[in-house]
User: What shape does this take?
Amino acid sequence: MRLRDDCGLARFNANWLSRRELFLRSSPFRWATGHIITPALRSAFQTFLPVEEFLSDLQRLARKALPDPSWIPRILRTSQVHTARRSASHAPPSLPELWAMLPPQLAGRVSFTPDQFTQLLCAFADPPQFGTDLARYPDQAAQLRRHVVDRGAATDIAVLDLGCGTGQGTRETAFLFAECGVRNPRAVGITAEPIEVWMATHRRLPHRPEREVALRALPPQSDVYFVCGDALAPPLCDTFDIVLCNGLVGGRFLQKRPAFHTLLTQCRSLLAPNGVLALANSFHDGALVHLQLFATVAKENSWTVEGTPRDLWLQPAIR
Ligand SMILES: C[S@@+](CC[C@H](N)C(=O)[O-])C[C@H]1O[C@@H](n2cnc3c(N)ncnc32)[C@H](O)[C@@H]1O
Assistant: This one.
């Protein structure tokens, strides 16, 4: 991803550094990881360094720097920046709370070098709390391995990974199939953020260098593609033997019965005969109620449901 040089970063830096200077004259605050944000501190930050304005300014930079406005990460898109105070949007209520969402090398900063700005945009698209990484769902991987062996490794396999993020799980699954002896494993990952698609495609994680090293060490498979799209309306007309949907259902992105219904309908039409929908997650226990609801909705719609809410294995009734 090559950001345009003339996006106005120098002006942004000068403005926010001088505002921070004013703030520091009134408050001895120094950012540290784990800092407790009291209401008084939040209010002081909002007076001098309002997070909505910070995000709006970053959005203007991103609009100029990125190849297309559609690449602007969700947290910077206008509607959410403007509704930050009023709704439980993705925008945090103050700058320190935004910093707390960022990798350590970016937290506490109001100015950025061009490389740091690239990292920041990547971190907005793939914040650390997504936790996307290799080897995240070992039980699911073991089950996929058994499944491939049972159905005969000699046959080709196509997998679709809905909500693939930066693509570690997609690539790992293609590699797992190859290890099992599948001749032509094909994998397609779909995710919401164009910058995630760029990272997944190029195996780049500028904001998480240690994870990038691990991702690049994974033996590459030839038939792996990433697409930007909505899991509830995937831009595909192929069918797949396996659909993965990890870390999406039950989390903040997908919690409601109508969305579950739509997802299941989509998956039914995307699955080849005898296809499987596998869902894993590492959400906190608060998500269990949503995950249980998802399993209920699947059963109501004639899916066979096996496993635990954290590791589901579903098949639609034979058509
Ligand atoms: C918590 S991450 C999980 C990533 C990966 N599947 C994993 O389990 O490690 C959720 C991902 O879903 C993507 N996402 C959210 N809503 C989506 C949607 N409606 N369609 C496709 N992807 C979505 C986010 O951009 C994010 O990358």
Remarks:
- The pocket of S-adenosylmethionine is lined by residues 130, 132, 136, 163-165, 169, 190-193, 196, 230-232, 246-248, 251, 253 (CB under 6 Å).
- Strands lie at 157-162, 185-191, 224-228, 240-244, 271-280, 303-308, 311-316.
- Residues 79-89 have pLDDT under 50 and may be disordered.
